[in-house]
């Protein structure tokens, strides 16, 4: 039986990973789940002008919102879990939590995208596979739309077009 680190942002893909963890618990494969939400830090300018406690409360509220669906599912299924909230870089926070909490594996849900899109987006999944100290199990969500599967995301495409135009 293993201990899972389950990063969750409340997205449908993340909730699919929660359901996968519940199924693994009921099969007897999992004994404990560490549910983790990582909040992005405020910019240095904002942090300098806003009270630390106000920032911390904001991060807690956002994390609670993101974890609400996962907590409901885990509670209803009787899965034992702990809740953790981190502020910082998602990849580093997840990898560090896996090490610190002595997890046997990280379970992450992701949308299905092409390898090109994942490379261009610098995806969290790819980053975790590169740096995580424990195995990362990836649960694929619903297929992405046709443009996302074969193309470059609109924002990246627009940025590339601007770079190309400015170089001419």
Automatic annotation (TrEMBL):
SUPFAM superfamilies named among the record's database cross-references: Adenine nucleotide alpha hydrolases-like
Domain called UspA: residue spans: 4-138
Protein known as: Universal stress protein
